[in-house]
What we know:
GO terms for molecular function: ATP binding; hydrolase activity; RNA binding; RNA helicase activity. 38% of the residues lie in helices and 11% in strands. With 703 residues, the protein is an alpha/beta fold. The site of adenosine-5'-triphosphate has 21 residues, from strand 3 and helix 11.
Amino acid sequence: MPTKLFSQLRLLHPLLPMKPRTLPLLSRPFFFPSSKFLRTSPFKVRAFSSREKVPLRPSKSLIDDEADLSNWVDELRSGGPDEMRSGRGNEVRTGRRDRFADSGRFSRDDREREFRPPRNNNRASALGKRRGEDLRKGGQSVGSRRKFQPRSDDDDNEVMNGRKLKGGGVGAFPSEDEDEDEDEESEGSEEEEILNKSRTALFGQQNVLNRRNTEPTPRPSSPGGGSDSYLSETRFDQCSISPLSLKGVKDAGYEKMTVVQEATLPVILKGKDVLAKAKTGTGKTVAFLLPSIEVVAKSPPSDRDHRRPPIAVLVICPTRELASQAAAEATKLLKYHPTIGVQVVIGGTRLALEQKRMQANPCQILVATPGRLRDHTENTAGFATRLMGVKVLVLDEADHLLDMGFRKDIEKIIAAVPKQRQTLMFSATVPEEVRQVCHIALRRDHEFINTVQEGTEETHSQVCQTHLVAPLDKHFSLLYVLLKDHIADDVDYKVLVFCTTAMVTRLVAELLGELNLNVREIHSRKPQSYRTRVSEEFRKSKGLILVTSDVSARGVDYPDVTLVIQVGLPADREQYIHRLGRTGRRGKEGQGILLLAPWEDFFLSTVKDLPIEKAPVVPSVDPDTKKKVEKALSNVEMKNKEAAYQAWLGYYNSNKKVGRDKYRLVELANEFSRSMGLDNPPAIPKLVLGKMGLRNIPGLRAK
Ligand SMILES: Nc1ncnc2c1ncn2[C@@H]1O[C@H](COP(=O)(O)OP(=O)(O)OP(=O)(O)O)[C@@H](O)[C@H]1O
């Protein structure tokens, strides 16, 4: 049988003296000619080896798109925002060049694109102009530069709610926000002025600093092997870590450092600011937590109120999920540090409970999402003062936090902590525009440590990536066929299906449920408790499909995900990489499929440097399967189809390319509507159409 033959070849794979990337004929099954094989095999990659020796850490659960932090810093500090520190810092890489490509990004991370009224975007325009100048001034430190996206795009991104929107186009939709995000205040002009002044001060010095700091510093070697060998040869006990931390590390099951840990730990321990880039699933959390714990361990005990000690380490995560996960990791590492406490504060839980918890369990390390941090600063007695004790500030998923959606929040947090501190920023993706603005947080002599080696992609080579371009009306059937094939091939399947919006996620989950697949859904429209439960279930399970919006795109450490399917246009290149990064973690194998409609294939040019193979044939959908899917679609609730249609329209309307031609956009939306089995597209409220800039476009039905 061809599938068997393929599996056998895959089993031979590690025995061959070449790396997988040099063996496309073996690692990419669709080079085999049999038509049946062609139909199924591109989606049947099985892991052939596993190097894991350590237990998985607890999963994080929930996304948290935190609300705006307007004006709270002003109440904390009379002196205005922290003086911005500038300079590009020392660039340190295990490779010799970056692989930044033009992204054509239009996305907005992990938030739903539901309609909300537009907000004043003047500020965004102003900042955008500023940033355009900044970029032109910026130094050249990476080999292949990401093209600067004109700020007008970002202006559009922020049109709705004046924040957290990416992707241009009139009527851009806001993202999948948490409840606490809903009531954002308009931005004050005074604050804007301060921020602009800060930027001027910041970027005015940049050229000088660039010249001073572009020489890469040699990093420790990584004898662990190539880019996909996530472990180094260096053991934790070879580093100057306190004995108590070492015991914690050992109990956590870690012996050797991962490559990013090996590269960053000595630098961070010296007290330097670090911006680190390392592939998904390679241990960045421990890389910033361990040296941060050392800072607390070495600090003299506070002579202040012991129940409310100064917060020495503040870790900011963009989502509740990541914050919970980071705090869980910290708790593991602190096992033998009885005097050091860690707490997590996240949205979606009761503030009073967190206040009580913090009082009962004093902490020097705080992991927080930005919105909840603001809540505590405003409402928890003594909290702002405690923040003035911060010695280490960590920005996890730094590029996301510095993106326009969070930038203002982060600037305010920076203003609320001491200027004299160490700052650590980590992510799997560091677009060039983020490099250009990282000085908002980092000292001028910071080091940029890039563990993505030259000649390697930002994704893992042990993850087989395929793209499939097929008409929109086939997507539901194709998704079903792909899943059925994968399930037939791997009893231990564990699949993530990423959809464009929360409402489309709900629709797809319901459809797959109707088709009797074992499926769960997770997106921002689900209550927190539900999401926590589903997330935990998926973490522990095998034989399960999780249909998800981008709430699961970044950082989530689900073990042993066998396949990631991305249906429709990913928000941007970074989001594609982070979503794909849910599989192939800790050196394991995995598989990724990107399913696009023909008019979405422009996205492929933004990821052309990644090893995404074109599927040679579109899997065939036999008439029985087609009928089955149609029947299942007819059972999907009408209101879910209506909501999916509106969300779909909003998502693609906010895309610079697709949303540019409103007539074409509506044609495509109605194609989507037909693919759900609807003869007539659902009606949309007039107000909504107006806000989207879609009033009187033929083909739309208004109500
Ligand atoms: N030194 C180590 N040895 C073995 N496993 C490790 C080590 N350090 C971390 N891990 C494990 O590696 C996994 C991935 O770590 P982590 O979630 O921090 O990755 P990441 O690089 O932050 O990924 P992402 O970019 O997706 O957020 C976790 O399960 C963690 O427990």
